[in-house]
Amino acid sequence: MRDTATMVNGFDMSSVDALDPELRTIVERRASLLGPAYKLFYRNPVRIVRGEGVHLYDADGQAYLDAYNNVPSVGHCHPRVVEAIARQAATLNTHTRYASELILDYAERLLGTYPASIGNVMFTCTGSEAVDLALRIARFCTGADGVVITANAYHGVTAAAAEISPSLGPAVPLGRAVWTVAAPGPGDTHDSLAARVRTAIADMNRHGVRLAAFIADTLFSSDGIRPEPAGFLRPVADAVRAAGGLFIADEVQPGFGRTGEAMWGFQRHGAEPDLAVMGKPMGNGMPIAGVAARPEILQEFGNKIRYFNTFGGNSVCVAAAAAVLDVIETEGLRENARVVGGYLRDVLEGIAKDEPRIGAVRACGLYAAVDFVRPGDGEPDGDAALRVVNGLRERRVLISATGPDGSSLKIRPPLPFSRPDVDQLADALTATLRTR
Amino acid sequence: MRDTATMVNGFDMSSVDALDPELRTIVERRASLLGPAYKLFYRNPVRIVRGEGVHLYDADGQAYLDAYNNVPSVGHCHPRVVEAIARQAATLNTHTRYASELILDYAERLLGTYPASIGNVMFTCTGSEAVDLALRIARFCTGADGVVITANAYHGVTAAAAEISPSLGPAVPLGRAVWTVAAPGPGDTHDSLAARVRTAIADMNRHGVRLAAFIADTLFSSDGIRPEPAGFLRPVADAVRAAGGLFIADEVQPGFGRTGEAMWGFQRHGAEPDLAVMGKPMGNGMPIAGVAARPEILQEFGNKIRYFNTFGGNSVCVAAAAAVLDVIETEGLRENARVVGGYLRDVLEGIAKDEPRIGAVRACGLYAAVDFVRPGDGEPDGDAALRVVNGLRERRVLISATGPDGSSLKIRPPLPFSRPDVDQLADALTATLRTR
Q1: What are the boundaries of each domain within chain A?
Q2: Domain A46-74+333-435 has CATH 3.90.1150.10
Q3: What's residue A317's pLDDT?
Q4: What is the 3-state secondary structure (H, E, C) of chain B?
Q5: Residue B6: CB partners within 8 Å, gap ≥ 6?
Q6: 20 to 30 A from B306, CA-CA: which of A25, B269, B408, B430?
Q7: Is residue A310's pLDDT more than 50?
Q8: A125 touches chain B (CB under 8 A)
């Protein structure tokens, strides 16, 4: 089921003839204009024309419950964010080489959500650019090159970020200075990941490579979502620093309250990063991302190296990002992620209890994974997960799949997701499981 | 005058005490929040709060004539673009994995401005990301690693783009597989650059490195703006292809009608690229950029490699970009760049005629360079150019400087720049030259 670009839940162009004629025309036109690198979701792609809150609407006016998109994190087309974008776009949209208080007010608020040790922030447009910049900073700061990552990590699509993203598949080689460790998994204790990282660093050193950084998505999204036991990243950070490297927390997915327990994923672990990378939900869909840093790490880099990102921290994207912080606070979305996320986990565990095809449920806030396995031998079953993803799509509930085998449902809705939304998702899941 | 990060026209933090108290507070707060990598323009930074057309306004309501910013290419806060952004932000802002005609309609229009050989486009958020992607494609497609660039090129700030950007200064090493050639200059004939590129490729091959690509800004902006004699890029493209490499046209600055003579800089040269990189003016300040490509080059890359840029080609940025094409067409901005650009060149040449400190004027459309030299020996005089840039800023006309010595004024206004705007710029320049 996985195509050669190893994308989970990608539409396969060889089945284009099975689509309804109008959609088929769009899909073929798309292939001819955008080329083969662009993949659509689902066996029967969705044609979306409008969004509002936790719903997307297709060209026929049908509503889809969005249980997938973490980018429009405060809800599709949130009026407060839309208003901020429209107002700022009509007033000024410029870069960071003129003095402006807009970006400073935002930077101050954003840094206020971090531990006191994190005192600076630099803005980019995408999480990939933020990861790329964090790598540049870490390598400059340490004078070293080596990076340790988890086995199915995803950190982005620039050349440097792709080199530390094994989940992009075998056609994208890892960098020569990149070492992988097994992701956190069943049976792991508090120190298991740290022990694997120490072993990887020792092997790296044996090959004459010194450690620049360990980087991890603090929820291990592409490794199948691995939140427990919270705390295991703290000894990892200690091991990394003992080897002279930096601990980079990739908060592109866990950040901005997704876990419910904290604003940032590393906080669940009692660990403090040297650099933290943010992205996706930061501007509710506007291209803004960034690197938060301990100031002493940026000092020499910033003095010697000119970094200017034309659109990074531009006025409109910053206005959107400030409105996102407003909404997270005034609507209590972090608390909602905790409470509704807990309910989601309970409901999924209830479904899993009587379902031999489900091996495990893992969840943290509004981010849940449901592992599908072959009932006979318990092996990961990516085809089963994919059938469920497509079955939910036919019931107009949008999710996807993740993990090294694509065998885990990936449930990651906008943060205003409610208990009735969970119930709708659960009903659709139950109905789908009944027929497949 | 050039700081260690070799930024032309950067504010020097050691002179922060000289600023008025309110501005000083902002500048110090900025350094403390954003860190030392963020540089401001001018000895006396400008505090901008509003933009409209070719004007920016400071906190005291003073108007500045913008003769620098090419990003708000159709004018600051153009109502048609603002309206498109506001409308789309309120309707839908999503990624490219749902079927949508919005991005296809735009892609089709955009590709319609290219030669027929360029049939695909991929979207990113920044020019840096587009350059980075073009390098990934070129290296995948050729199986080679080597890149030839000009001596003071600038192509971006991702790790891979910075490796081909010598203008970032000595603290940013060029890649080991990167060879530089002297930029086009006085005395060059139609084949001079091609001859230098052939020599570089031969030397590269002698070192066991094969050519993946030659990449150049088709106006050679950071090399001091080198438009003439138009045509010299054609034999370069031939030499590059003969060596098995790809010709990548960096259109981030020349593109979207800036040259007046054509939509794309390579068209002035009668050359066709294999890949073209777009950015800055594409969305009038919204983060959208892209790579246009010959389809056969993308074929294997796209089939084997998953490329997904979360914000790349998102609905709001595409709506802004479509409005930009509308405005360029309906307001005849390319023609305006040709006509007003010609007038700008004439006016600058008139000023240069009686001014021994000016060595040369080069211009192409609404992009002009004025070289400052020491009257005694004709050596480049970066300090003189910088004094003029700051003198114009005090007269509320915004430009900057460029070139390997920072000795060329960089005049690059939004495309609706008018003859009276040129006159105002000329008056301010004359007045500045009189006092310095």
Answers
A1: 46-74+333-435, 79-330
A2: yes
A3: 98
A4: CCCCCCCCCECCHHHHHHCCHHHHHHHHHHHHHHCCCCCCECCCCCEEEEEEECEEEECCCCEEEECCCCCCCCCECCHHHHHHHHHHHHHCCCCCCCECHHHHHHHHHHHCCCCCCCCEEEEECCHHHHHHHHHHHHHHHHCCCEEEEECCCCCCCCHHHHCCCHHHCCCCCCCCCEEEECCCCCCCCCCHHHHHHHHHHHHHHHCCCCEEEEEEECCCCCCCCCCCCCCCHHHHHHHHHHCCCEEEEECCCCCCCCCCCCCCHHHHCCCCCCEEEECHHHHECECCEEEEECHHHHHHHHHHCCCCCCCCCCHHHHHHHHHHHHHHHHCCHHHHHHHHHHHHHHHHHHHHHCCCCEEEEEECCCCEEEEEECCCCCCECHHHHHHHHHHHHHCCEECEEECCCCCEEEECCCCCCCHHHHHHHHHHHHHHHHHC
A5: A306, B167, B168, B169, B170
A6: A25
A7: yes
A8: yes
Note which residues in 211-230 of chain A have CB less than 8 A from chain B.
none
How far, in Å, CA of B364 to CA of B269, rounded? 13
Instruction: Determine whether the interchain pair B71/A107 forms a contact, defined as Cβ–Cβ distance below 8 Å.
Output: no
- Give dist(CA A382, CA B238) in Å, integer: 48
Laid out side by side, the sheet with A408-411 consists of A358-363, A368-372, A408-411, A400-402
- Which ipTM value was assigned to this complex? 0.97
Peptide bond between residue B235 and the one before it cis (omega within 30 degrees of 0): no
Chain A: give the shortest CA distance to residue B220, in Å.
18
| Residue range B79-330, CATH number | 3.40.640.10
The reply to whether B46-74+333-435 and B79-330 are identical in fold is: no
Low-confidence ranges of chain B (pLDDT < 50): 1-4
For helices B315-330 and B101-111, give the axis angle rounded to 10 degrees.
Answer: 40
Q: Tell me whether residue A208 is exposed, middle or buried, using C-beta atoms within 10 angstroms of its C-beta: 0 to 12, 13 to 18, 19 or more.
A: exposed
Distance CA A242, CA B284 (A): 47
Per-residue pLDDT of B126-141, as tens digits, reads 999 999 999 999 999 9
Per the CB < 8 A criterion, the answer to whether B167 and B161 are in contact is no
Cis ω on the peptide bond leading into residue A45 (within 30° of 0)?
Answer: no
User: Which residues of A fall within a CB distance of 8 Å from B158?
Assistant: 129, 132, 158-160
Of A260, A283, A220, A224, nearest to A73 by C-alpha is: A283
Name the band, by pLDDT with cuts 50, 70 and 90, for residue A129. very high
Residue B320 to residue B85: CA distance in whole angstroms: 6
In angstroms, the CA B146 to CA B152 distance is 17
Mean pLDDT of A91-116: 97
Residue A7: predicted pLDDT? 83
Residue pLDDT, tens place only, B181-229 = 999 999 999 999 999 999 999 999 999 999 999 999 999 999 999 999 9
Q: Does A318 touch chain B (CB under 8 A)?
A: no
d(C-alpha B229, C-alpha B393), whole Å = 32
Q: Is A208 left (phi over 0), alpha (psi -120 to 50) or beta?
A: left
Whole-Å CA distances, B76 to A259, B306, B316, B383: 39, 36, 17, 30
Dist. CA B163–CA B145, nearest whole Å: 12
Residues of B in contact with A319 (CB under 8 A): none
pLDDT tens across A411-422, in order?
Answer: 999 999 999 999
Contact present, B148 and B211 (Cβ < 8 Å) = yes
Is B25 an 8 Å CB contact of chain A? no
Give the pLDDT confidence score for residue A137 in this predicted structure. Answer: 98
Amino acid, res. A144: A
Provide φ and ψ at A182, rounded to 5°. -60, 140
* Record: contact B93-A77, CB cut-off 8 A: yes
Q: State the average pLDDT over residues A380-408.
A: 97
